[in-house]
Design goal:
Helix content: 40-55%
Number of domains: 2
Radius of gyration: 34 Å
Largest sheet: 14 strands, mixed
Distance between the termini: 94 Å
Order of helices and strands: EHEHHEEEEHEEHHEEEHHEEEHHHHHHH
Number of helices: 15
Length: 546
């Protein structure tokens, strides 16, 4: 549990707009893991990273199910029973006594404890804002080359415009452009990672334009900002010159998926424009003006909002709250005056940090894994050369491995439904819909099927070619076979000759037959074409006569 204990009472509205008594953000960053020059690709990446020495900041998180049963809390139980049994086995494993065997969860979590806060100087704001760190985690998945960084941050009494700016600027892996004054576009001016004693552990380098440009020119790949690179160590960027046990590279858009929780004071109602900016993470703006046209936002509520508990006409057990997601974001808003909404152990905030986080994590893990499969299949096809037997063999092995891994992914990790609880079920479905993971899954499966069909057709082609050659050899060998069979084997009376003479004759005939057979096989395609032409000529003559 983090140190959130601030009072959630009457912050005043100032010129910057309403104040958010409690703001919480969780950034996710899925990356693809690559084999390092020092090590081959492992099946258990978490064990490799956790086992490193020499100041390794990451250690494996021992979950509540492997600890003392007397310390197992009700919130852990509530989280567990939210999910269906197949998802429970994925998230928590299938048995305490099988910790080192098949009962262990295929998902492993590593955590570092040295980063206590983010100090962020936002572009367009004068004063830096400090965001406390609740967790910095790395999620690994057995036998899948995907890692997901998760950073949970929180702060109290921030202006709404600052919250919107944090959501818009903070989760940028690298700049997309630079302004004429040299400042990175849509990125914070400065991000500092602070230790528990306030010491600066790492600093962003978004403004180092030349470093980003030269790296992209040399490697045809973007460079990761210094503070994110620091968090992921000892993982190293794929094109980096730094050595490391596992390399990573970007899979999708450079903006990190994010979750946000906003507890607002009573009477501070968010406008429709505010909701649009939060749901789509567009940055701050006038609460009375929409960021996009009326036509674009005509179906905003139906498309992005889950309003099961929003604007209730009669009091319900669940507090009034609004859930919004565009796939890239999942935002929860509600009242800071409602104790259940802000309860970190049993209320909506607890659900946000656990059940909602896990459904968001699973959805983005699905998308990242499918993008990884698609990338590998594209590389395998690009290296295929049908004229090169070695390239065809390599393609066959890569396809077989991809089929095997995709089969395990489908049966171990792929879920259309993760819960029968309506709230979790609907949010997961809405998130998956915006991420289009079903379409991506079908695309990858079709790509694998096409590769498998190609290999099958190639095998059939080679088999047919071999059968054609054997047929030609058999046809031409049939003449000599019939002749010797009709005339008999004793054409010459050499039975009384000296054994050496007979052995020499046998060897000469053997060599001659071998040479003839070899020449026939070597010219079998031409001979087959000649036989086919002869057959077609005879058919054509019969057709003309008729």
């Amino acid at each position: 549990m983090d140190a959130f204990a601030s009072r959630l009472t009457g912050a005043e509205t100032d010129a910057e707009g309403p104040t958010v008594p409690h703001f919480r953000e969780i950034l996710l960053w899925p990356v693809q893991l690559m084999a390092s020059a020092e090590t081959s690709a492992p099946r258990n990446h978490a064990a490799l990273i956790a086992g490193l020495g020499n100041g390794n900041p990451w250690s494996e998180v021992v979950d509540e199910f492997t600890g003392n049963p007397d310390e197992f809390q009700e919130r852990h139980y509530n989280e567990f029973v939210t999910f269906l049994p197949p998802v429970q086995r994925f998230l928590y494993g299938s048995g305490r006594n099988a910790r080192t065997g098949g009962g262990r969860s295929p998902m492993s979590v590593l955590r570092r404890h040295d980063i206590a806060a983010f100090r962020v100087k936002l572009l367009g704001e004068e004063q830096p804002v400090t965001l406390n760190v609740a967790h910095v985690d790395l999620y690994f998945f057995y036998d899948i080359d995907i890692a997901i960084m998760a950073v949970e941050l929180y702060a109290s009494d921030l202006p709404l415009s600052t919250v919107q700016n944090v959501m818009f600027q903070l989760g940028r892996a690298y700049p997309a452009f630079w302004h004429t004054d040299g400042k990175a576009g849509h990125c914070p001016e400065l991000v500092e990672l602070l230790g528990a004693d306030g010491q600066v552990l790492a600093t962003s380098d978004y403004q180092d334009r030349d470093a980003f440009l030269s790296f992209a020119c040399r490697n045809r790949s973007p460079r990761t900002a210094a503070h994110w690179d620091f968090i992921l160590k000892p993982l190293v960027l794929h094109h980096s010159d730094v050595t490391g046990p596992i390399r990573y590279r970007q899979l999708e858009y450079y903006r990190m998926p994010q979750m946000a929780f906003l507890a607002m004071n009573k009477g501070h109602t968010l406008s429709r424009a505010d909701y649009v900016r939060l749901a789509l993470s567009t940055g701050p703006g006038d609460s009375d003006r929409l960021p996009f046209s009326d036509t674009e936002l005509a179906k905003f509520e139906n498309k992005y909002c889950y309003d099961r508990y929003f604007r209730q006409t009669t009091p319900l057990e669940w507090p009034e709250s609004r859930y919004m997601t565009c796939g890239h974001t999942l935002v929860v808003t509600g009242s800071a005056d409602d104790d259940f909404f802000v309860n970190i152990d049993h209320g909506c905030l607890n659900s946000f940090r656990h059940e909602n986080f896990l459904l968001f994590l699973i959805a983005h893990f699905h998308k990242a894994s499918l993008l990884m499969f698609s990338d590998r299949l594209a590389k395998a096809v690009s290296r295929l050369d049908t004229a090169d037997a070695a390239a065809v063999r390599s393609f066959r092995l890569e396809t077989r491995h991809a089929l095997e891994t995709f089969l395990r992914f489908t049966h171990r990790y792929w879920f259309h439904v993760i819960s029968n609880q309506v709230h979790v079920h609907d949010l997961f479905a809405l998130c998956r819909k915006h991420l289009e993971v079903d379409r991506l899954y079908v695309d990858v499966r079709e790509e694998l099927q096409e590769m498998s069909d190609f290999l099958e057709n190639e095998a059939m082609r080679r088999q047919n070619e071999t059968m054609t050659r054997l047929t030609v050899v058999t046809t031409f060998g049939l003449v000599a076979t019939i002749a010797t069979g009709f005339l008999g084997m004793n054409i010459f009376d050499w039975a009384a000759e000296h054994p050496y003479w007979r052995a020499g004759i046998f060897g000469a005939v053997l060599v001659g037959v071998a040479i003839l057979t070899t020449l026939t096989v070597a010219r079998s395609r031409r001979l087959a074409d000649m036989m086919e032409r002869l057959s077609e000529d005879r058919r054509d003559r019969r057709t003309k006569k008729s």
